[in-house]
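Researcher: Next entry in the queue.
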Amino acid sequence: IGQPVDLMDTGPGVRQRHGRYLAIAAGVVFVGILGVIAYSVLWPVHPAGTTAPQLAKDSDVQGQAGPTMVSGRLELEVASLGEMAMYMDRTIQDLGMDVLAEQDQTRRVYRIACSREDLAGLLDCLGDVWHRFESTTLYLDTGRWAQSVKVCAIKPHQLGQILGQSDPARSIEVARQIAVDNTLEQGLPGQRLLATAIGTNTSPLPGVPKPVLTSGRPGGDRALRSSYGPKDIRLTVVLMAFE
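Model: Structure for this entry, 243 residues:
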């Protein structure tokens, strides 16, 4: 007859086994959470009674789109809506972009049709003030009704990577990958502390350099760009007052 088993045994061996079980259980839970995050980002579901963010329409802006058109909606929340709207107006005017704008008390909407070269110029200027935005979110059109790829905390260079693709399907792939990366990054501890430490809304808005038509004169990096490429990008930029 074997030795009786002590059910209340709490020796080192039992505690070690319990520790392994807890570690395995924690790993399973973590993988499950990552799966839920990835699913919600890559295949967002719009609950009944709600609608997907409205994206820019071909008829909203000037120019004809080619077969490689990419469209999306960029929502930017900012504490000083009036000041940022003035900066955006000057930037678009100086870049000579095709834009339809509308405004109310809480937001200003820009419907832009542009080439990839034009987009690079716009992102170059917005990069100088990106830290002033409280939130930055892109909704990339997937070509399917009520479905879009949502990319939170997006950065200027990521916008260029997504919208600058010549193949819309590739744009969607890149957006989904960046969406997962940014979602995981936002969940890491210390992100809010880091944002507070570096400051986000303290520096003044930079001036927008005037266009220069002669390449040998100052301001060549942001000279007015004459783009002859197809205007295959439809971007609706929504400046919203942060509450």
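Model: The mean pLDDT is 74.
Researcher: Noted, moving on.
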